Amino acid sequence: MGEFEVSTRDRVVELLNAAAFMPSEKEKIANLAQVQELIIHHNPQLLDSFFEEVAAFQNDRNSDVRKFVVGFIEEACKKDVAMLPRLVPNIQLLLSDQAVAVVKRVIQAVAQLHRATLAWLSSARSTTPEMEQVWLIITIIKTTIITMIDHDNDGVRTQAIKFLEALVLLQTYTESDSVTRDGEFNLDQVPLTLKVARPRKLEEEARMVLNKLLAFQGSIHISSVNLMTCMSSLTIIARARPQFLGKIINALEILHANLPPTLTKSQVNSVRKHLKIQMLNLLKHPASYDYHENITTVLNDLGITAAEVNKSMPTKEMIRKRVRRDKRGEEVTESSSKKARIEKEEKKSKTEEVVGKNSAVDITQRWLVEKLTAKTVANLVMVTMLNLPDEMPALFSVGYSPITAAGTPTQIQHVARLIASQLTAAGVGPGVEQTEEDEVKGGYDSDEESKISRLVGGQVQTQEDTMQSGPVLVPAGVAGRASRPKAKTMKLDEVTKPLFAAGNSKMQRLLLLRLLQCDKMLFDSASKHRTRILTMLSGCMSSKESEELEDFILEDLHNRADLLFSWLYAEYSLEHDFSHINKIFNTDITTANKKEKKYSDIISSIALKVLAKDSTKERDEFLSRLFLECPYVPEDLITSLVRVGSQGAESILVIANILKDTVHWRPLSAKPALKTLSLLATHDQDSVRDRVTPILLELCEQDSLRTVVTEAAIKYLKYLYQDAPPESLCTHNLGRPNQPSEWTEATVKACLYIYLALLPLNQTLIHDLAQVYVKTVNEAKRSILRLLEGPIRHMGMDSPQLLTLVETCPKGGETLITRIIHILTEKAPPSEALVYRVRELYNRRVSDVRFLIPVLTGLSKKEVIAVLPKLIKLNPHVVKEVFNRLWGVTLDTGASPLTPVDLLVSLHLIDSDKCDVKTVIKATGLCFAERSIYTAEVLAFVLQQLMEQPSLPTLFMRTVIQTLTHYPKLLGFIMNVLQRLIARQVWKQRKVWEGFIKCCQRAGTQSFTVLLQLPPAQLSDVFTSAPDLHTRLVSHIATLTENQRAHIPVNLLEVIEGHKSSEESQSIPIEPSPNSQEVAAFSEEH
Predict the structure, then answer these.
(1) How far apart are CA 872 and CA 862, in angstroms?
(2) C-alpha span between 997 and 1001 (Å, rounded)
(3) Does the first or last residue of the chain, that is N or C, have fewer Cβ atoms within 10 Å of its Cβ?
(4) Where is there biased composition of kind Basic and acidic residues (predicted)?
């Protein structure tokens, strides 16, 4: 032993002794680092002597010291592979360390030790049992690290990803295009004859590890750090092993289209930037030639220009070399070496696997390209517009790139590729279906975890045998523990004698009473044990004992609620055979002691007893907790809550809220809870309904819940088919203790409350109402018509269901339809769709003109004039409503088809065969009564239009006289009208002529100018009919000067002065007089 070695040994001993007692971790690690430098690098001969002393520090309390030990083991094994059997067990122990930092350092070290172990086995001429044990431990460690990809700690997952990368590179063959480091060890250097680690199994394991890595990259909740690490590892694998290039590019494409939703805006930026770098690295590889289109498309989406893409592409010379190598590879003859043949077959199988894996996306892409027509895309865009948020999401704003070549085949292919990736990732689409069929036919085993566990290290199932048959490797520096003889366990059932049934019942009874009486004397821990014992006893309690326990709990609901819930869960488990209590109490239970009350009986009994108490805050809170925390709410218990309806509105509100929470949080009990709420909504008191109905409507916002409430509403509505109210509605709990023998307004409303509240939410229900209306009793019909207004206004006249109902009006439902139309048009003009359907129904089926009144303002002028004779025959109040609609009095908006002028003119022009004169006179009287509408100007226009008629209407002069009466200021205009009448020989129409004379009488002296324009015979006739006009005219002429009298024709003066002969005064020929009805009407008026 040289002097240098002695001095080094002493120095090492000194450093180790100092490190063992140093309180400072930094100083301890510094000493150990010096030891490592001395025994590994300066004097490796000392490694065998001191490795155990250094390894012993793995039990140190400080994690940094343990991390140093891991690094020491790694360096020692790399320096001397003979250290592997001695130090690998230490690594296995350190992998389960509590400190995350130590575990991460172990994973880093195992990647090197795994490579060193495989190289050691490959270089050995023969395999020893010690080597097999080392490989077995490495295999176990490897399997453990593979599962750590799902570790809770993000940093551990990152190191696991890097380990999987190293494993894939180590356990696969290189290719001509592989990018490798100098001196890198891989499967190329592993002999095919190595039995401990078969190359074929190692390669298969690497493939499945790669699949696990790809699946991890596509997981939804992956962090941004792990995602970028995974992308880098996959890129390194693709460049080093081109056989996996297609699979990895496909995974990156899917990732680009489906970024995890948990990423923030800045993380999305980082991931996209990292993805861009990795895709550019893959593009530079010569083997990526077949995938240039896919890579280029992704890069374009990421904002890379075409110039940058071309700059990163491999040179044409590199591509030509690769093509020549591929051709040469296909011409390999059968005389090649065994390894070459195996490699070629494996390469072929790998290629087929890649193609098979990518085929799901490719098949779906081809299917989508056929479907992505311009029309289909437009429809998809319009449909998805409904789901767009109000503000642009951060992920979209970061990831969106403007589309420069929309509609081109390349862009269509790209969109199809993106959608196919998303569909494949979601497990849907024709590609996935076909792949699954192929896998089923081929007997594909999708459980990669099980494959890895079977393949890692060969025959895993013989691990225990191998451990026992070979030398046992003990961790260095860990003292062994002496085995102790086990004491024999006493079995209680061997020393316990069974009790008789009577004794068992008696002891159980005494135990129950004792447990209930010691309630206040127990501490918290003892109280928990008591609860467990009582829960166990529930398996064989009699009905009487159960009631005693119920009463005990009800005495103090607040403090004994935990006991109740433990009991209920035990009963539920017992009833469904989830508990071992059945086995305990399965024997020696007599009929008297046999369990009588089931879970539903117990919870119902407790709930009803609580409900019977006075309403307090404590009671209400307990009930709410009972319904939400019990294992199951029986339907009978929910339906029995109706009895609270007799306790007042406040109690019902509490129960309604409990039922609401039950619907939300107990899906299995939602249906009976909704039915009970619906029944409470039919309560006779308004205060109860006002509390329950809003809760029901709030629950109906969910479609699934609305269906149940709708069924209940229709059920109550159809009660109206019956001759009398059913018993279910007439109970004390619903505020109707006495059942009436016939329908009343109150009972009808009870059937309609929920239905009418739901009508705006589910407008299809209106058709059921129409069917019921046709067949129900008159009292119900009147109530329906009164209650309709609110829901119908809420639905609006644009409702498709209302329009359909009007169009398909059931026979006998015309009154209902009329009421609905009145409500719709009361404050708004009718829509075109509503007018069209009402018009069609009127023309096709309903002949009653009242049906048209609500939509009059939507009809054409011609249509209104056509039905005007029928309208004015109606009740005066109805006629007044009709005129108000036409005048626009009841509507703020909307233009009437008839102006006030048109209406009054149309009334004058009504044929007497269609409507008698008296009715027309009453209708015109309604017009003249509206002085604000029929002003002097309007009436002037009316007279003007009537004058333009070919034949003057019968009531024309009556309207002239009324106009003069209402508006004396129009005297001049009316005199002008009378003058025009002379030109039209008014005396030929007797009724008009008589009105002319009367108008002259009303006008007085103003009419003399008109009279002096009449022919002599007609003037004489005027004097005969109205002698007062003759007297007044004579007096008027007497006041004239000679000059003025000279302007009066002589023949007229003769008539006036009475000197004309009787032959000249003979009667004038006149048209046949109108029918007697018209004459009588005119005479009666004047």
Answers:
(1) 16
(2) 6
(3) N
(4) 327-354
